[in-house]
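Continuing the series of single-chain predictions for the mutant panel. This is the parent chain; the variants come on the following pages.
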Amino acid sequence: MKIPLSFVLAATLLLAWIFITHQLSQPIWATERGRDLMSFGAAKGSGFQPTDWWRIFTCQWLHMKLPHLVLNAVFIVLLGASVEKIAGKLVTLVTYVVSGTAGVVAEMLLSPTLVVSGASQAMLGLTAFVLIAVAKSHRANKGFDLSIAMLAIVCSITLDLCYGGSLKIGHVVGFLFGAAFGLIHHATSKSATHAPTSIE
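Parent structure:
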């Protein structure tokens, strides 16, 4: 039985949380502090050095609050599965990593004092892909996929406004990159479908 990539991605988020709480001798439900997460690979624009490049990736596996982590993990499993079914594992992974990384870099550049962590940027990349590519597909259950995508957007906007007062630029950039991948996939799939076949 093949394990979906989205499940693996979500599982690694949970494992990272368990590892950090264990290392800090904290209960599993504890809220992490930004300065503690910096020790485990979180990113920050101010003081960033070229040798810190790895933080741009590792920070995406770190979260400050367990409920936020669980919410991201659930959406990644559901949305990632949709992307994987329509576009395959490679496209799902590329969309996840590139959207997440682009969102992190944007956040570091425009909010340099903020400790950047979390998988929301990548999750929103998958969300946008679903809205674009899945909506234009002929999948029988695409209504469910689109409902999950809309719910992810509502949750993300609500959390941004409640805790930050505005949308996080990293979330917006991650979403836009996911939308771009969705459009590219739809365009290439449409071209392949309508490509003329040779007659020998």
